[in-house]
Amino acid sequence: MFKIPLCLEVIAANEQAEMLEDMGISVNDDPYHDPTFLVCFYKIDAIMPDERNTKQKPLTCVVCGELVYLCKIDMATLVDRIAAVSQ
What we know:
Elements: E1 6-11, H1 14-22, E2 36-41, E3 46-49, E4 60-64, E5 67-71, H2 75-86
Antiparallel strand pairs: 1-2, 1-5, 3-4, 4-5
């Protein structure tokens, strides 16, 4: 549990992309162009780099319970932000 919530901008889930593709709307494979929304976390179970992670476009997965969120942030910065709200 964090002393204060950690709010991160996360990328919309793959389910939304699949729904758009089913409707015949083309979706870009680069998640950096996907819509984002703000999520405030009170705890995080795990963090891991996404397979599409690059130095120019860092992507990190945040696991909270059964949900996995994709964030436009590098692992080191995320660890620093987690440490800041945990003190």
